[in-house]
Design a protein that fits this description.
Oligomer: single chain
Distance between the termini: 39 Å
Length: about 325
Amino acid sequence: MRSLAKKSVFLVLAALSAHVAFCQKAFVKVDLTQLPEISSIEAVEVEKEVVINGEKILRKAKVTDAALAQYDAELERNNIAIRRGKSPQVNFFAYKAKKGDTVSKLAARFCVISDTFVVINSISSQDEEIEGLDIIVPTAKGLFIPDPDFQNGRESQLEILLQKNRFPLADADGAIYFEIRGRRYVFLPDEHFSPTERAFFLDPAMIVPVQNYWISSAFGNREDPFGSGRLQMHKGMDMAVPEGTEVVACKGGRVAASGEDSVYGKWILLEHSGGISSFYAHLSAVGANVRNGAQVRSGEPIAKSGSTGQVTGPHLHFEVRKDGNSIDPKKYIN
């Protein structure tokens, strides 16, 4: 992403967004490599030389990142436009989330509710880990609704709900569409999540990683399935499904590791917020999107079930861990 010096691109986006208000279903493709980049959301204390009564004196002052200052000015102009019943000029800035950043912290500093930027950044829950994400920050308050006719198979439950509730009303003459990261959104100025939509975003519960399963072995002590007769601790839940069944991330998070061994076969470990991690084993295939450090969303396909490793039949071995200790998945998944 480029620096604030690329003002010409910024002005092109502004001109486009000003123009699209008068068009029917206008489309604006957002080039992420051209966005002005906010390097820091923290004000930095510096010493400045000031002249008082003809005498030069060093004074401490707090300075805001130049791109952030420009963002603030754009946002304020759009707030005024919305209050006057006019269409905002929607532009975008870029920001790479730092250690300690959260959705709430960014919403507070960018002076918008989180509803405005979480959908276009594929953030599916309030407690999702965002460190390292390239965040797109719009300069107008509102909602970005995914176009159901322009899907890529990665829709979250929240997005599906937004499409059902909002898109029929949003898809009208004069609608402004933005194509971002290969997806298309229609923008609704000054809108925010309904109570039901917000509940989906705030709900910390996990989703079931496979569909149409039956539990072939529950969490807890069990007799060795390979005939030794010994009791042993089963640290997860075995979910019997046909080989090749789609496996999805039970919650948004980061790929901590993946690999293959003689016991678990092909496996994936995801890290979530709050010290929670999830483990998926005996897979027949791992998705191309599963790379160490990669972010995945809740419900995003990550693998296919199988019978690799030490098994008696095809199934998904699914574990949930808290601070590294295995706990019963039934306490977490819906």
